[in-house]
Amino acid sequence: MTPQKRARLYLRAAVMGFAGTVLSIAGEIWPLPDFVRGLAVGILLVSLLLLLIRRFRDEFIEQLWNAGASLAFVAVVFVYLFAPFAEGVVDGISVAAPRQDFLASSWVGSIALLAFFIGFHIKWLRASL
């Protein structure tokens, strides 16, 4: 397999991972059928496996990976710092009794994956322009 084909395969896996992440988050928000949620997780696992196997093959792929990982880290820190504050504001504005509806720990993985793929794709798009 030529280096161009390997790079193309890697970038296709990144697009598949982004689609799987979005579909997985949609499955958590809306009641989607179980096979759709399972398909999203399967796509995500296969793409993450391909991304992890070939993450530091060349400098360009390493830059894409670093951009995604940096944005994912920032997103996780942001969620843990500001999610309780945002929940308190929403509970203060609403007329219902205050309760803990949003658990930051249950959404951190999804948000981190989404931020990783957003950072990855933004760096990829900026590099190709």
How would you describe what is shown here?
- The chain has 129 residues and is an all-alpha fold.
- It has one domain (3-128).
- The chain has helices spanning 3-29, 34-53, 59-93, 104-128.
- Helix 1 (3-29) packs antiparallel against helix 2 (34-53), helix 1 (3-29) runs antiparallel to helix 4 (104-128) and helix 3 crosses helix 4.
- It is elongated.
- The model has no long low-confidence stretch (mean pLDDT 88).
List the helices and strands and how they pair.
Layout lengths: L2 H27 L4 H20 L5 H35 L10 H25 L1
Helix pairs in contact: 1-2, 1-4, 3-4
Beta-strand portion reads under 5%
> Spans of 5+ residues with little confidence (pLDDT < 50)?
none
Structural class: mainly alpha
Radius of gyration: 17 Å
Average residue pLDDT: 88
For the secondary structure, the number of strands is: 0
Give the overall silhouette: elongated
Instruction: Note the run of SSEs as H and E.
Output: HHHH
Tally of separate helices: 4
| Tally of discrete structural domains | 1
Characteristics:
129 residues, mainly alpha, 0% strand, elongated, transmembrane helix, transmembrane
Short description:
The chain has 4 helices and no strands. By secondary structure, it is mostly helical. The radius of gyration is 17 Å and the shape is elongated.
